Known about the structure:
9 helices, globular, alpha/beta, six-stranded parallel sheet, 371 residues
Amino acid sequence: xxxxxxxxxGTGFMGRAHALxxxxxxxxxxxxxxxxxxxxxDADASRAxxxxxxxGFAQAHSDWQQLIDDPAVDLIAITTPNHLHYPxxxxxxxxxxPVYCEKPLAVSLEQAEQxxxxxxxxxxxxxxxxxxxxxPMIEWARELIHSGELGEIISFQGEFSEDFMADAQSPxxxxxxxxxxxxxxxxxxSHLLSMAxxxxxxxxxxxxxxxxxxxxxxxxxxxxxxxxxxxxxxxxALLRFASGARGTVSSSWLKHGYKxxxxxxxxxxxxxxxxxxxxxxxxxxxxxGEAGFQRLLAGPHLPxxxxxxxxxxxxxxxxxxxxxxxxxLIMALAGQGERGTDFAGxxxxxxxxxxxxxxxxxxxxxxxxxA
Length: 371
């Protein structure tokens, strides 16, 4: 069995999630590769060494370019702040190595386009971390939609809200700077936009409003120095899908009480389907003529679920979704699968997000650029 060397850049929340997924996937699935955790990189050399040892990586680097150049590394996983996705991915692609990058793909449409062009030239597998789409329940929802169970789809209502920035005294971070992040639309909304496209197809036009509620935040925790905020705290948009369906999406990182509220309701002429990521092991379905919603539960009848549990009601979690995403990535590297969002798909999400920003800026409907 050929060996696949994994190189991981970044040691924050997402870095740990990637490390767990790469460690767990071999225990859950039969793979076409023998995975080797070859190298880990972090700008803090001490943390790089500590995490490499704790997570089982053979080598630690404080310079991410050294990791990309490491001959033991075959796949580059990027889990850094958003503004670093572009230089790291471009360097990896220039080295001819596949790239697994966290979302959003980049902090500007121009960067995203260049990354997709570089991926095409390199001819390597790319994937972007829209892991919620790998939930077996989402695939079930997609099958219900495409099978005609809901009839003709007429509307999509989606929201992704959290409360980690709800406190006005929460300190400034890289997420608050336009050239480094992109605000609630990029951080949360990109997941929702990707989900809408995955379930219902292309969006042809948008109208939108963005809003920065807290225009300054403390420079650091407890500091009296205030720093300006250059990104949106919340966004609301109207969508017209190419299929003829209409939709709304909203994202906020200010909504008290919500921790991971990626939710949607999809209505058709024969029924309505609903999902909430905070209850990620169930769908709600109401067929025309029924008095209310039926709860559809996850179980081993769904592809992916059975790999983790042989019994219904035992539940999958966030890290299992990441492991499912990594499994699809590895199968794609072996030429045995095409699921997952590649750079081309992620670019389509960035085009949609860019149209939403322009629509909000100019207070008008904007046609979404298509590939």
